[in-house]
Amino acid sequence: MPPADTGASTVVVGASAPQSPVTTTAAPASTHERLEPGRPGYRRMSFALFAAGVAAFALLYSTQALLPAVSASFDATAGQASWTVSAATGALALFVLPLSALSERFGRRQMMTASLAIAVFVGLLVPLAPSMGALIALRAVQGAALAGLPASAMAYLAEEVRPKALIAAIGLFVAGNSIGGMSGRILTGWVAQAWGWRAALAAVGLLALACAVAFHFLIPKARNFRPGSLNPKALAKTVATHLADPLLVRLYAIGALFMTVFGAVYTVIGYRLVEEPFSLPQGVIGSIFLVYLVGTVSSAAAGRLVARLGRRGALYLAVTTTAAGLLLSLADQLAAVLLGLVLITAGFFAGHAVASSSVSRTATTGRAQASALYQSAYYLGSSAGGTLGAVAFHAGGWAATVALGLLAVLGVVSITLYGTRVARAERRALVPATR
After folding, report:
1. Higher confidence at residue 259 or residue 235?
2. Helix or strand or coil: residue 23?
3. Is the pTM of this model over 0.90?
């Protein structure tokens, strides 16, 4: 199976780097047998990372379904309130690389545990924010804390799980993200309708606390991790190597563009549904996020999609599904909007699972940095999508938000088509000339 999904060269990233970002001191890696379905520890690992994914997405997007209520409470516009989401995702994007580097020294498991603990603590403080500025600042701290989780989780899986089971394992982690995003939004919607948005954020904090405790007791000890002392120059060189690889750059761009669509749609959808012709109450708007269950299914099925269609084929299916959902959501019938959200969610989670797993498979050294760069691009896309989507909605309504999403989808298609042409050209170059 080729290591990438955009049709680029199968050259292994990082293999030629002369130095590692850390100076290793432990025994050689892979001295222990890796996890796979049916073997001891795999189920515990799956449940632990699923719980971590639930906590991370529930916390990261805890204010998204509450934006109309937050706007009303602080007399803020949609664009201003959207920063309660964008500040968290933007901080995560900025801190994911340095925290992933620390995971090279202190361990993936330790970094994930610390990240969840700090994020949960801040999450219990967020409901007490006295002003919009304070709320945005706390959300930024929370996003920075969560930055230690995603890249470390991807690196942990790449080191501890057999390659043939990697896509499925990452799919389960991404499925936990979708469940967290769904449950957090539904919970906040109904709690906010009964007791206000502050109580809703407190409920999310308690949910995340339960997930963090479960993660701590379930996650197996890393057996193939090699700790070492940080080497800043080598770290910079590893990052530069990853950024110089056209395949990884395309994967990073694909992740960012997919998340731009997703961030724009789900930041703005609450504002659209609270207005005419829908006029839905907060609890019902929160329940709209049940469509995240579709993301759980599509991300977990990413491995089967790749096996049947290939990586590029799976990406083409994901972008087509997303674009169809965007167009369908333009209708003023609630059923059509809901079906559009189902298609957007299914396409996004499938595309994200394929792209993120390709990054982990491609980079054989500096995996944490490769995954961290993907996560940075991914969450920068979320921040851009949330803010630009809100600005577009304020300027031109839902149609303008959809236009922004379609532009991002077109970018994914263009990148994938380019990768396909590159792959074909390289295959032709490898075929000996015939007379």
Report:
1. 259
2. strand
3. no
